[in-house]
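pasting for the record
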Amino acid sequence: MALPKFIITMQGYLRLGMVNLHKDLLLPNDQCIGGGYYQFDFVSNRLLLDGESYDFGRPKWHLLETLKVPSVYQGLRIIYKSSDPFLEDTNVSEDLKIEYY
Protein backbone atom coordinates (compact mmCIF):
# COMPACT_ATOMS: atom_id res chain seq x y z
CA MET A 1 0.00 0.00 0.00
CA ALA A 2 1.47 3.34 -1.05
CA LEU A 3 2.07 5.83 1.75
CA PRO A 4 3.43 9.41 1.77
CA LYS A 5 7.15 8.79 2.29
CA PHE A 6 10.32 10.84 1.95
CA ILE A 7 14.05 10.22 1.73
CA ILE A 8 17.13 12.40 1.76
CA THR A 9 20.16 11.52 -0.32
CA MET A 10 23.84 11.99 0.41
CA GLN A 11 23.79 14.64 -2.35
CA GLY A 12 21.25 16.56 -0.24
CA TYR A 13 18.07 15.93 -2.23
CA LEU A 14 14.72 15.68 -0.47
CA ARG A 15 12.39 13.35 -2.37
CA LEU A 16 8.71 12.88 -1.56
CA GLY A 17 6.26 10.43 -3.02
CA MET A 18 3.41 8.03 -2.52
CA VAL A 19 5.33 4.75 -2.57
CA ASN A 20 5.30 1.29 -1.04
CA LEU A 21 8.97 1.31 -0.02
CA HIS A 22 11.37 4.17 0.67
CA LYS A 23 13.81 2.65 -1.83
CA ASP A 24 11.22 3.33 -4.56
CA LEU A 25 12.23 7.02 -4.27
CA LEU A 26 15.88 6.35 -5.09
CA LEU A 27 17.41 7.10 -8.47
CA PRO A 28 20.40 5.18 -9.87
CA ASN A 29 23.63 5.96 -7.95
CA ASP A 30 21.73 7.58 -5.04
CA GLN A 31 22.91 6.90 -1.52
CA CYS A 32 20.10 7.31 1.01
CA ILE A 33 20.87 8.83 4.41
CA GLY A 34 17.46 8.36 5.96
CA GLY A 35 13.79 8.87 5.44
CA GLY A 36 10.37 8.80 6.98
CA TYR A 37 6.85 10.01 6.34
CA TYR A 38 5.40 13.39 5.40
CA GLN A 39 2.23 15.42 5.55
CA PHE A 40 1.30 18.96 4.65
CA ASP A 41 -0.03 21.42 7.21
CA PHE A 42 -1.54 24.04 4.92
CA VAL A 43 -2.99 26.06 7.80
CA SER A 44 0.48 26.65 9.27
CA ASN A 45 2.25 26.55 5.89
CA ARG A 46 4.50 23.65 6.91
CA LEU A 47 5.83 20.44 5.47
CA LEU A 48 5.89 18.02 8.40
CA LEU A 49 8.35 15.14 8.24
CA ASP A 50 8.36 12.41 10.85
CA GLY A 51 9.32 8.86 11.74
CA GLU A 52 11.99 6.85 10.06
CA SER A 53 12.53 4.48 7.17
CA TYR A 54 12.62 0.79 8.06
CA ASP A 55 15.52 0.28 5.61
CA PHE A 56 17.45 3.55 5.95
CA GLY A 57 16.66 4.79 9.46
CA ARG A 58 15.89 8.34 10.52
CA PRO A 59 17.36 11.21 8.48
CA LYS A 60 20.98 12.04 9.20
CA TRP A 61 20.55 15.82 8.94
CA HIS A 62 24.01 16.39 10.46
CA LEU A 63 25.63 15.07 7.24
CA LEU A 64 24.17 17.95 5.21
CA GLU A 65 24.82 21.67 4.95
CA THR A 66 22.32 22.24 2.15
CA LEU A 67 19.00 20.53 1.51
CA LYS A 68 17.83 20.56 -2.11
CA VAL A 69 14.05 20.82 -2.19
CA PRO A 70 11.72 20.81 -5.23
CA SER A 71 10.64 24.40 -5.96
CA VAL A 72 6.95 23.46 -5.68
CA TYR A 73 7.49 23.37 -1.88
CA GLN A 74 9.07 26.84 -1.71
CA GLY A 75 7.56 28.90 1.09
CA LEU A 76 6.78 25.93 3.34
CA ARG A 77 8.61 25.68 6.65
CA ILE A 78 10.11 22.18 6.93
CA ILE A 79 9.94 20.50 10.34
CA TYR A 80 11.12 16.99 11.27
CA LYS A 81 9.76 15.18 14.32
CA SER A 82 11.67 12.08 15.38
CA SER A 83 9.89 8.95 16.56
CA ASP A 84 12.32 9.03 19.52
CA PRO A 85 10.55 10.98 22.31
CA PHE A 86 13.93 12.05 23.74
CA LEU A 87 14.97 13.92 20.60
CA GLU A 88 13.79 17.46 19.93
CA ASP A 89 12.07 18.45 16.70
CA THR A 90 14.42 19.62 13.96
CA ASN A 91 13.53 22.90 12.27
CA VAL A 92 15.11 21.90 8.96
CA SER A 93 14.33 25.28 7.38
CA GLU A 94 16.44 27.04 10.03
CA ASP A 95 19.13 24.40 10.61
CA LEU A 96 20.07 23.85 6.95
CA LYS A 97 20.50 26.05 3.93
CA ILE A 98 17.57 25.31 1.61
CA GLU A 99 18.20 25.31 -2.13
CA TYR A 100 15.17 25.04 -4.43
CA TYR A 101 15.37 23.40 -7.84
